[in-house]
Automatic annotation (TrEMBL), chains A, B:
This is 2-dehydropantoate 2-reductase. It comes from Zooshikella harenae. Signal peptide: none annotated. Residues 180-300 form the Ketopantoate reductase C-terminal domain. It holds the Pfam family ApbA_C. Residues 3-150 form the Ketopantoate reductase N-terminal domain. It comes from the Bacteria. It is an enzyme of class 1 (oxidoreductase).
Amino acid sequence: MKIAVVGVGAIGGIYGGLLAHIGHDVHFLLHSDFEHVQRNGLRVDSVLGDFQLPKVNAYQHAADMPQCDVIIVALKTTANMQLAPILDVLLKPETTLLLLQNGLGAEEFLAQHYPDTSLLSGLCFICCSKIGPGHILHLDQGAIRLGEYSPQQEAGITPKMRAIAELFANTGISIHFTPNLLQARWEKLVWNIPFNGLSVILQQSTQGLLTDRHCRDLLVELMEEVIEAANHCGFTIQAHYAHVLLHATDKMADYQPSMLLDYQNKRPLELESIYWEPIRTAAERGFNMSKTRVIAQQLAFLDQQNKQ
Amino acid sequence: MKIAVVGVGAIGGIYGGLLAHIGHDVHFLLHSDFEHVQRNGLRVDSVLGDFQLPKVNAYQHAADMPQCDVIIVALKTTANMQLAPILDVLLKPETTLLLLQNGLGAEEFLAQHYPDTSLLSGLCFICCSKIGPGHILHLDQGAIRLGEYSPQQEAGITPKMRAIAELFANTGISIHFTPNLLQARWEKLVWNIPFNGLSVILQQSTQGLLTDRHCRDLLVELMEEVIEAANHCGFTIQAHYAHVLLHATDKMADYQPSMLLDYQNKRPLELESIYWEPIRTAAERGFNMSKTRVIAQQLAFLDQQNKQ
């Protein structure tokens, strides 16, 4: 079974690296790190155990890659517009697409282009970052919530999901099935919307945000707004979930959310999938995410400044 | 007629300096700049004409000052808790207190302590800053909206207001009377809440905020929220006032709002009077200033960080 990893940042690097490490046939499509990885392979410093892959299948162009049975898309959603020419080359009729991306909208976008392709998504609960070319640091956690996309929302637990879980069986990564992927995406937004945004705006890692009284109030109030939005969109998230996530984050190692790292490295921020698409989706159901909108507008300003 | 100026920052410096410059008997109570001003006087670089006052009545302690007919309070509202021992010394029965301060709550606070003292407030529409000890830069504008405080809100145009306007007659400063001081305070908040807050959070002067599309939307939406809050509190501000202020600010010279200067100089931010008091006042009338609250919470975090 051939596995492609499209995008080898922190997420593609850790999960693709683990799959290669346990012996799977993994093919990495790289961009800026191509030459380094082709020459030196991948290095992973992980809480699951450090390892090096001195020789990996590294590619600069999709056209050079084999067609694959599983394609892991680990690009930032800001790069999804560039996916079509890559997937056109890599896809076979029976290929499974596995998106490891945050926010809303990626499945709908891909389902329009590839209506007959199985589309699965993994929501990654992991603290990791790329700290150098081909060099991934995995600090904490690692579990994936896995679901299959269905326009009817509730896909249940499918054979394709079991097959993906099988792939990860010996990696040390826990796979948790979710029968309702979009519900899981909204649940993840309950964390991502407050923590990613405020970490960029206030230039703080998680513990700095959590320990300030006013900022902690703001985190909770944003979480509550996302929960309310999700419930307006037909999902069911209990109000106390905000506090569950808050206390879980209290116990996590201090962490720089991925959007803060993107900002610091002058990469574009995933505002469309993490902010604007949820705001629009809720507005269509008559709910105004007014606090989230303030955060999104501030981030849009900072993102624009960052590009200059 | 003796005039005291309590607090000689940008506002106390420019208005007190102008009054002294045209020959009034002005007594300045200084804090950090005392020694410099006692030795060198005040220097004012102003669009109305530069001038120096080589010798001013400078004091380090209120106890050394004469009782005054007019006391101009030009401290930041964050220092109002320190006013009582100063005013106890300076006040005569017929003294007029003139507050040159932003936000809500200062009159109510002082009226509790000095119920028999005439309390006037001037809202300053001015671009000025203190650029060195005893050295004021006045870049643009300068008008004062003057009103008398009345617990019944509508004080009308009073003899005390005319007397203060008389004092400023030859300074080049326009005095505009407002019969309803609290309405005028809310109108000023329509500008202060968005521009002061976002300038600190996004580290931008006015033109930088205005020219970004998302940030401009946010400015307008915050202004509209303040207008809605004011209208809930029994005042009358038209919806289009947001656009009036926006276009006026477009035409103003690029400007660092006073809160941004306070932040950069590690001075405490006027969050109580400009944010929390309006938020509480609106909440008592059943209106939730949800966007303003996000800004206030972010500012509270930054203010706290700034103190460390």
